[in-house]
Amino acid sequence: MADESAAADEDVEGESEGAAGGSKKKLFLFGGIGLVVLLAAGGAAYYFLMGSATPTTMPDDAGSPVEVQKPVVFFDLPEMTVNLATEGRTTYLKVRIALEVENRAMIDQIQPFLPRILDAFQIYLRELRPADLEGSAGLFRLKEELLRRINLSVYPAKVEGVLFKEILVQ
């Protein structure tokens, strides 16, 4: 019986030494991985914060090119008031829109298509629900859809942007 307890004590000591050796290996492994991650993060921070060796030039420097903003022309469409697609109480949308075009010649190309533009806008706007116009995302979608429709109506002329001067949902 004494021999069995001595053998059991040796097994327990061997297991604890093996476990201690395994935990030291894990400690070194995790420590090494942590060190690599820390060095990578430090290198990335240095690259993004201090990596630019060339000094940035100010726009008023004599040698730097200055980007010139292209002149644009705005064309006001007539004010439109339409009723929205609702059930029950009638809801109206009043909108004033300006079109952004490249130059005056583009306005001359667009002017003959004004009835077609207004028709396309009226048909689209009447199908909207008040929920479609909520938030900045709704207005952005409206702006993009109106721009797409106007460019289809006036092709080959091109409108650069649709700008809302007034939007009122009542």
From TrEMBL:
InterPro entries named among the record's database cross-references: FliL
GO cellular component, one term: plasma membrane
Superkingdom of the source species: Bacteria
Membrane topology: Single-pass membrane protein
An example Gene Ontology biological process: chemotaxis
Keyword Amino-acid biosynthesis: no
Residues annotated as transmembrane: 27-49
Localization: Cell inner membrane; Cell membrane
Spans annotated as Disordered: 1-20
Family that this chain belongs to: Belongs to the FliL family.
Role noted for this protein: Controls the rotational direction of flagella during chemotaxis.
The name this protein goes by in its record: Flagellar protein FliL
